[in-house]
Amino acid sequence: MKKVFAAAISIVAVAAAVTACGSGKAPEGQGAASSDGAITLGFAQVGAESGWRTANTQSIKSAAEAAGVDLKFADANGEQEKQISAIRSFIQQGVDVIAFSPVVRTGWDAVLLEAKNANIPVILTDRAVDTQEKDVFKTFIGADFVDEGRRAGTWVAEQYATATGPVNIVQLEGTTGADPAIDRNTGFAEGIASNPNLKIVASQTGDFTRSGGKQVMEAFLKSNPKIDVVFAQNDDMGLGAMEAIEAAGKVPGRDIKIVAVDATHDGMQALADGKFNYIVECNPLLGPQLMDLAKKVAAGEAVPARVVTPDEAFDQEQAKAALPQRQY
User: Fewer CB near the last or first residue (10 Å), C or N of the chain?
Assistant: First the structure.
């Protein structure tokens, strides 16, 4: 998968609002860097837009406590400006390491350069960035979003391999400009390309939220008389689509198949119940790996440019088997 990074290519939400600029007031709940010998990690989270993100945040907070890392956490509430303000506050405080999951892919050059000039290493989590600047982050940790989309598309292509007529697909996209939305879109298109009968008849952002997925799916159902498949770029949007399908008097999973990405508990339960048909996992439990990487970069140790987290995929029977042991 191709991304434009400055160096070799290579996570979370409920603390304080982040409204300050670099030289202004720090986000509420943040203090100075640790003086007890522990490394201080400033983490700027995207927000709390989904069940996945909530699990991701909990993983980071729990892992920091277990690893003895002094965590300074900021929630950007889905706004790039707040996330940049949080990063600048971390720089001002002199934290040892900064990590963040970018709201969108572009617009980070200036603040990344500020961190570099302050000699504070940066780790990207979950989402990547596009930058022309060199050596402005140490590593990226997260999933291969293109592959996630491709696996979802390949499953759809295989399910309709013998279709003799058009198969109409609607796509619920994530936040416009966000790394997973861009890459899952690309991967899904690749996955269905082998079957010319598969057509994406409508595609619109649901902003990675359940309410957004429901609203967009309601509109799709009104404007498209025949929908065979929904590809939701995350579970929450798929769950919203499921509600809209049921409200329209149709049966999700039978009348309209639902394929999603994430494999959160609610999504997996929908799959086990037969209301979803297939889920590609995106593991949110990045906390332990992030703490390990943070300690290494703080100590000046070399780390891989990219750390890809392993993901699985599930059908109904596999979801039933996996649910009792799911951590998220």
Answer: N
Residue 71 lies in a domain: yes
Residues 29, 132 within the same domain: yes
The pLDDT confidence band at residue 256, using thresholds 50, 70 and 90, is very high
Angle between helices 145-159 and 179-192 (to 10 degrees): 30
Q: Where are the alpha helices (DSSP H) in the chain?
A: 51-67, 80-93, 109-117, 145-159, 179-192, 210-223, 235-247, 265-272, 287-298, 316-322
Q: What is the pLDDT of residue 18?
A: 31
Average pLDDT over residues 314-319: 98
pLDDT score recorded for residue 24: 31
Long-range contacts of the stretch 34-38 (C-beta < 8 A, 24+): 34/70, 36/70, 38/68, 38/69, 38/70
Q: For residues 27 and 69, what is the distance between their CA atoms, to the nearest angstrom?
A: 19
Average pLDDT over residues 84-112: 97
What's the predicted TM-score (pTM) here? 0.83
- Claim to verify: residue 175 and residue 276 sit in the same structural domain: yes
Number of domains in the chain: 2
